[in-house]
């Protein structure tokens, strides 16, 4: 009973140190305290329920062996404070031998609402597991590993891992885990990948090798730990289906090399053929060369508006010279270009050899690209909108009639996209084809509300709100000919306006958006118009519970460029469904003025959601303005020349021909001056 004697000797000291800590009791704990463990899997996961209202900290539970030594092994943690549940996972290999172990919950592992720390807790276990043993080989060595995980790493893009050991024939299953030691707790897992090779022949010395699919960036200043667990080639499994036994472990420490989102100095020098310089009439002409000022890796090429939306070309279409300064995209044997007409647009994404993104002419940090377009005449056919006619003014939009340009039979492809867009180019509703009203040469589409779920039907409604709109059909919405001679349709834009009054009928009432789009937030944090250090999360509180499905939020800079996207989510910790969090895909940290736009009819109450839009209320378009950082010279820079017109953020004229002094005298807020947003503090 060594461990209990050691703990008894320090009990008085521990009690004194914990005099100010609050007492607590695990409501449920797995495995049960004082358990004699006879099955291997019972020690792999530790789970307990704490009292309601307690919150986990970064302090982790500890296993202590008979000699009072802490078991240092790999483990991960999970917590759900809303349920008071905390789960910690240990690998069985952390327990080197059978015997007595003590599980300790250190002081300060939990905190209560008053911010006080929890008192320590201790529980005893006896481990007696037949297959519990140390490494299979005492002399195990990793002879070589590529990439070398003992040196700084930059970027892994579909990285090939190759390992050679002195016992290759004993290894069947290999697991690699990489953790960012400087990341936030719970968000430090970078790579989790494995390789499976079973029943190696005795004496097989071939390297262990596999591809880690995906792209991973290792940031400068961050420290990383990598652990490799080698399992035996016999492919034995324990009761949970995990591979066993372990041959050995190997651990590595390295630092990152990539400075976060710093663009490379390498430039795109030339594109051949010059964009727009010729019309591509034959597939053999669809070969494009990109020349850079230094060696790069072109890791993706796509057509932003293609046959089926975004078409990503495989790496087999890309090649380079030996210096990696000249890259060729060969689409001459690609079926897609045979259906393109009017314009072929291509985006090229490239990084330098250190993993830094090249600054292109489109996009922002992490996914900047070079875009170019060429006239194209390879066979796609045109479509026209019969009703409403282009430029028409109508009372309401109920249906749209589309036919082929030359009267040829055509079929709806079911893979294209058809929308009605507002003046900002935002999709406000879908167009659903009516099979009953399709005679082969002309198709009828109905304007519908957004679908509320994958299994729900889209309900046709009339678009009645006054304004200007555009009908959009993506390329490839229709197919001409049969499967062996199929040609796709071109994309189509056609504008119209709604100016008429409502004329509801009792049998088919129309919901006026002006009446229905009244579901708005009651509070937003940060407040609208605030100056913030960064845009990461917005908290919107509504008067009742909110429903949403696929709410896509966009962030615009002062020049109306989209610089970030965000999505809606609930407060899952507190189960507050009247609170919506707008979470940004990437934080906006560049100083400047920004507008966050939440599309209309994407947030609603339950009545609207459950009735497929026939009742209830939904949100109007929500626009929130923020300034990231603050440049004290911004106002003077914009108003350097007297005589600027000043507008508020809603486009209303505030001052005409204002001087710099008059601009400074305005009430604090965000204004548009000379086409730029400025902050008056």
The strand order across the widest sheet is: 27-29-33-32-31-34-37-28
* Class by alpha and beta content: mainly beta
Q: Tell me which oligomeric state these chains represent.
A: single chain
Mean pLDDT: 77
* Percent of residues in β-strands: 35-45%
Outline, from the CA principal axes? globular
Radius of gyration: 32 Å
Binned, the helix content reads under 10%
Largest sheet: 8 strands, mixed
Number of strands: 51
Number of helices: 6
Q: Distance between termini?
A: 69 Å
The low-confidence parts are 1-18, 34-44, 451-456, 502-506
Explain what the structure shows.
The longest helix is centred in the N-terminal third of the chain and has 8 residues, at 2-9. The protein has 6 helices and 51 strands. Helices cover 5% and strands 43% of the residues. With 681 residues, the chain is mainly beta. The chain is globular, with a radius of gyration of 32 Å. Strands 27-29-33-32-31-34-37-28 form an 8-stranded mixed sheet, with no helix packed on it.
């Amino acid at each position: 009973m060594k461990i209990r004697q050691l703990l008894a000797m320090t009990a008085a000291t521990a009690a004194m140190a914990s005099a100010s800590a609050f007492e607590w009791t695990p409501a449920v704990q797995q495995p049960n305290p004082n358990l004699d463990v006879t099955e291997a899997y019972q020690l792999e996961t530790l789970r307990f329920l704490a009292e309601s209202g307690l919150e986990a900290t970064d302090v982790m539970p500890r296993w202590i062996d008979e000699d009072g030594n802490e078991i240092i092994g790999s483990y991960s943690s999970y917590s759900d404070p809303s349920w008071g549940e905390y789960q910690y996972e240990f690998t069985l290999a952390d327990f080197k031998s059978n015997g007595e172990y003590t599980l300790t919950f250190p002081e300060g592992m939990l905190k209560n609402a008053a911010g006080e720390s929890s008192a320590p807790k201790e529980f005893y276990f006896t481990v007696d597991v037949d297959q519990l043993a140390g490494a299979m080989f005492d002399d195990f060595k990793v002879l070589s590993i590529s990439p070398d995980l003992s040196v700084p790493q930059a970027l892994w893009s579909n990285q090939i891992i190759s390992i050679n050991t002195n016992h290759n024939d004993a290894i069947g299953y290999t697991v690699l885990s990489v953790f960012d030691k400087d990341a936030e707790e719970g968000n430090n897992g970078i790579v989790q990948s494995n390789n499976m090779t079973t029943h190696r022949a005795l004496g097989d010395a071939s390297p262990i090798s596999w591809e880690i699919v995906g792209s991973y960036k290792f940031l400068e200043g961050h420290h990383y730990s990598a652990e490799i667990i080698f399992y035996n080639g016999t492919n034995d499994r324990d009761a949970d289906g995990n591979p066993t036994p372990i041959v050995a472990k190997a651990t590595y420490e390295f630092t990152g090399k990539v400075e976060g989102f710093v663009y490379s100095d390498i430039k795109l020098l030339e594109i051949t053929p010059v964009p727009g310089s010729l019309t591509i009439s034959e597939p053999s002409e669809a070969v494009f060369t990109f020349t850079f000022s230094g060696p790069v890796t072109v890791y993706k090429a796509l057509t932003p508006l293609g046959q089926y939306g975004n078409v990503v070309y495989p790496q087999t279409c890309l090649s380079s010279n030996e210096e990696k300064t000249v890259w060729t995209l060969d689409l001459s044997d690609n079926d897609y270009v045979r259906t393109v007409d009017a314009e072929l647009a291509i985006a090229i994404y490239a990084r330098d050899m250190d993993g830094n993104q090249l600054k292109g002419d489109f996009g922002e940090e992490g996914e900047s690209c070079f875009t170019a377009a060429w006239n194209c005449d390879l066979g796609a056919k045109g479509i026209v909108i019969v009703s409403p006619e282009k430029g028409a003014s109508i009372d309401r939009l109920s249906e749209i009639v589309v036919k082929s340009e030359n009267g040829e039979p055509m079929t709806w492809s079911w893979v294209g996209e058809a929308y009605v867009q507002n003046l900002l180019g935002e999709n406000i509703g879908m167009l659903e084809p009516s099979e009953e009203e399709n005679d082969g040469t002309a198709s009828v589409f109905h304007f519908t509300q957004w679908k509320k779920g994958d299994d729900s039907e889209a309900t046709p409604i009339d678009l009645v709100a006054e304004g200007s709109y555009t009908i959009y059909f993506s390329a490839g919405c229709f197919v001409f000919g049969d499967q062996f001679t199929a040609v796709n349709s071109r994309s189509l834009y056609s504008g119209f306006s709604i100016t008429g009054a409502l004329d509801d009928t009792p049998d088919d009432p129309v919901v006026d958006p002006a009446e229905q789009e009244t579901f708005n937030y009651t509070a937003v944090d940060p407040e609208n118009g605030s100056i913030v250090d960064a845009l990461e999360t917005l908290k919107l509180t509504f008067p009742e519970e909110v429903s949403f499905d696929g709410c896509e939020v966009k962030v615009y800079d002062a020049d109306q460029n989209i610089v970030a996207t965000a999505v809606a989510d609930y407060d899952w910790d507190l189960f507050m469904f009247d609170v919506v969090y707008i979470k940004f895909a990437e934080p906006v940290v560049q100083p400047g003025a920004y507008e966050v736009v939440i599309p209309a009819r994407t947030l609603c109450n339950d009545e609207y959601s459950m009735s497929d839009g026939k009742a209830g209320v939904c949100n109007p378009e929500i626009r929130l303005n923020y300034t990231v950082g603050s440049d004290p010279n911004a106002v003077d820079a914009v108003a350097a020349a007297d005589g600027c017109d000043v507008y508020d953020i809603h486009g209303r004229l505030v001052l005409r021909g204002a001087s710099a002094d008059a601009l400074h005298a305005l009430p604090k807020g965000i204004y548009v001056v000379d086409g730029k947003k400025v902050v008056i503090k």
